[in-house]
Amino acid sequence: MINWELTEDFFQERNWRQPRYTNSSAALSSLQNLVQQQGCQVLKEAHALAILVPEQDFRRVYYYADDAQAVQELLCHLDRLPGSTMVLEQITRGTEQAQVPADSGWKHLRTLSYLVYRRKGDLPPAENLGTEPVQPASREDCPEIYQLLHRLFDTKISHLPTMEQMEQLTEQECAWVIREAGHVVSFLLMEVTGKKTRYIYQVGTVEAARGRGYGKMLMQTALAGASEGLFYSLWVENENPAAVGLYEKMGFVSGGRTLTISVKD
Asked: What is the spatial distance between Cα 70 and Cα 65, in angstroms, rounded to a whole number?
């Protein structure tokens, strides 16, 4: 690992964010934890920074670059690195477009939009749209949820929590499930990222239980269980219009950021 001091000034000056967090202090803390991981690499140029984090069968690349030329130079460095598949994440703001050149050899995988919601006043009671109520998840549910996470979501696109992280979420009462015949068929995981901020990790429903309003019930529970003024955020795939529509109907609006994910084998 290349030792390089990460400072909050870096994030404040460039207004750069890691996908999950909405402020520079949280991003700094998270990235400082990342660079301590075994096998993590940090590449720093005059106008670019990349952090390569090893995952199960690929390396995830978080990066910042001042301009298109800096992006090109950074990609050239990454191309020379030996090893496994790399997944590149870039956040852009407003109408700004991702800077990864089309002829760079990186394949576009997904585009996600950042949505935000601020709790104002009382929400209507959650609708009982299904046959089973929403219940807080327990530690005993974690193995089943973990299996569903890896079945329903692509790890190259989604940041999935570890078993230990899921157990912490249940202890913090930030995880809910819906069961059918004793088995988890739908779940929501949420993370506390600050005194007034919450991040919706994942909302998932098994194929056989879709169309019953479970996702809406879980979101209503998560949003209704907090005080006024709480700020929620999540990332949703643009290629999933049903999910985008659900969140917008519940009051989520654009947070002005786009996350572009590219992959290179």
From this structure: 6
Q: Which of 12, 9, 8 is nearest to 30 (CA)?
A: 8
Residue 108 has pLDDT above 80, yes or no: yes
Residue 246 lies in a domain: no
Same domain, 100 and 190: no
- pLDDT tops 60 at residue 77: yes
User: What pLDDT is attached to residue 3?
Assistant: 38
In this structure, the number of other CB atoms found within 10 A of the CB of residue 91 comes to 21
**Rounded Cα distance, 213 and 188, in Å:** 13
Give backbone dihedrals phi and psi of 71, rounded to 5 degrees, phi first.
-60, -45
Tokens of 183: 């088995």
What mean pLDDT value characterizes the chain?
Answer: 81
Domain endpoint, select from 112, 138, 170: 112
pLDDT for the residue numbered 4? 43
In whole angstroms, what is the distance from residue 137 CA to residue 178 CA?
9
Integer angstrom CA distances of residue 154 from 45, 110, 159: 31, 11, 9
pLDDT exceeds cutoff 60 at 122: no
CATH number at residue 211: 3.40.630.30
- Return left, alpha or beta for 142; rule: phi > 0 is left, psi -120 to 50 is alpha, else beta: alpha
Query: What is the number of structural domains in the chain?
Result: 2
Q: For the purposes of burial, counting CB atoms within 10 Å of the CB of 198, is it exposed (0-12), middle (13-18) or buried (19 or more)?
A: buried
Q: Token pair of 133, please?
A: 């109520």
